[in-house]
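Kindly inspect both lines:
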Amino acid sequence: MSTLTPVAFDIETTGFEATAQVTVLGLVFPEAVRVFVNIDEHTVDAETLEASQSAQCDEHVVLTTHDSEATLLTAFSTTVSEKIGPREYFLTAYNGELWKSGFDLPFLRTRFLAHEIQWPFEDVPYADLLPIFKARFNTTPSNGDDHQTTLGGVYERLIGGELTALDPFDDSAEAVEAFESGEFDRLVQHNIADILRTQALANVAQRYCSKSDFKLKSLSPTVGY
């Protein structure tokens, strides 16, 4: 575990139903933040969007735009094969996939299947952060409210700082509205805020928790294409 580097990821979608689509997919690599944007029928200047995001989050952002969800997923698959599979990385998310729940990975499986695109995570280990912070850290706020387990809530209580201010949205519904209205600057900024918060929590967990707490699992399919 100590030799593996976490790569945080998060997706934005048009909703929660099976027919909903991925609008943004972001990853945090040691050298850069990598973002894939499904612009659908909108017109977007990718270079301007990339530059504005780099300036806003003070990170090196590499951003590409795609005319459809299928082309986004295909480009994402290439990046996974070239950058994650061969490296000493493990994929991580906050409530990305748990034993009986999770959002990001189940959603991606459905969308990869819908487009008949091969599942990209061959030989890629995964660990979810939500169980670690729920069980191994006290994130109860000082006002005595119930235990909070949202990404934003846990990040704010344990780390805090500029990433909370970076996020332009208060809830995920705003991300759907931003996509529909073509507000890609705010939509991508929200995604980057989430993946950087996830990466920050992954780094904290590595510093304060044991290897066994991560419960790494393989994302490799049992049968190839």
In short: The longest helix spans residues 184-208.
